[in-house]
Specification:
single chain; seven-stranded mixed β-sheet; four-stranded antiparallel β-sheet
Length: 131
């Protein structure tokens, strides 16, 4: 049904920046949460950021503490694409980053960013940060 394709990953030095993109297609809904998650080797998948796209220009955003102030999530409705701008990258940010979508029938997203609540997932894009 819904297809998500991530791009923009790569290898950078600590302190550098990357901008990830997630193009969505095939979905029939307009109210949803678009989230970014990451998974490092040997660790559980964890939420990074999310944005609610069902309220026009008013798109609430959600961040976990360890990326707050460094990462910025945004959404281009016309292009049906969500972005994650990552600044001041740290070695501990190294992970496979996944884009995900969750159908929503109430306003907003879950601020705790639970991976298991999301319905559709992309294949991921690798981010590697070296010191």
């Amino acid at each position: 049904q819904v297809q998500l394709v991530e791009s923009g990953g790569g290898s950078v030095q600590a302190g550098g920046s990357l901008r990830l993109s997630c193009a969505a297609s095939g979905h029939t809904y307009s109210n949803y949460c678009m989230g970014w998650f990451r998974q490092a080797p040997g660790k559980e998948r964890e939420g990074v950021a999310a944005i609610y796209t069902g309220s026009g220009s008013l798109m609430p955003t959600y961040y976990v503490d360890f990326v707050k102030g460094r990462f910025t999530i945004s959404h281009d409705k016309a292009k049906n694409t969500v972005y994650l701008l990552m600044n001041s990258l740290k070695p501990e940010d190294t992970a496979m980053y996944y884009c995900a979508a969750e159908l929503r029938f109430v306003y907003g997203c879950s601020g705790s960013l639970p991976p298991r609540e999301y319905d559709y997932w992309g294949q991921g894009t690798q981010v590697t940060v070296s010191s």
